[in-house]
Amino acid sequence: MTLFAVTAISLWACNCAIGRDMVRCDYYVAKNHDLSHQKDCINYAKSIDKDSMFAKASWYYLLGGDKNSAIKSAKEALKIGHHFAGEYIGFAYLMEKNDKEAKKYLNDFKQKVKNIEYVKRDIETLKSIYKGFDSIKAYNILFGK
Question: For the segment 97-111, what is each residue's pLDDT rounded down to a tens digit?
Answer without folding.
Answer: 999 999 999 999 999
